[in-house]
Amino acid sequence: MLRNIVTRNGASVRALHSLRTQTIPHSIPKPTEQIPDASTFLNVIGRNCSEFADAYENQWDNLFKWDSRVMKEKGIPTQQRKYILFQLEKFRDKQEIVAIDKGKKSFFGGERTRKEKKAKWLAEQRQNEK
């Protein structure tokens, strides 16, 4: 957050404070009947997150207290960390927890090169037909 600070000569200076110190600590929700522990939560959200259940030691508090830095130290890859934290926020907001599959990569690539790759592929198809 930015805050104005007045110096001795009256000029105001903006100071950037760490968001970490100003955020309200999240509460730890209680386990539900469908999700009684950390390993079940990781299994329900999918994307092979259940393989990291040992890192959490099946502790419900660890699941909600650890931030991305701690998860990185435990050896959890970046995409998995982001996905787990996303699902934890949904659980805190009492939203339904469902596994979200990874998106399928396009056959022709990204939007910048799609036309070019599709044209080359069609040209190859025409060559193969001859």
- Using only CA atoms, what is the Rg? 24 Å
Number of helices: 7
Which strand-content bin applies to the residues?
5-15%
Contiguous uncertain segments of 5+ residues: none
Q: Could you state the order of secondary-structure elements as H and E? A: EEHHHHHHH
Q: Please give the order of strands in the largest beta sheet.
A: 1-2
Give a count of the beta strands, DSSP E runs of length 2 or more: 2
Mean pLDDT reading: 83
Compute the separation of the termini in Å: 65 Å
Based on secondary structure, the structural category is mainly alpha
The share of residues in helices is: 40-55%
Question: What would you say this structure looks like, in words?
Answer:
Belongs to the mitochondrion-specific ribosomal protein mS41 family. This is Small ribosomal subunit protein mS41. With 130 residues, the protein is mainly alpha-helical. It has a domain at 26-92. The protein is 45% helix and 8% strand. The chain has a two-stranded antiparallel ribbon with strand order 1-2. The longest helix is centred in the C-terminal third of the chain and has 16 residues, at 114-129. The model has no long low-confidence stretch (mean pLDDT 83).
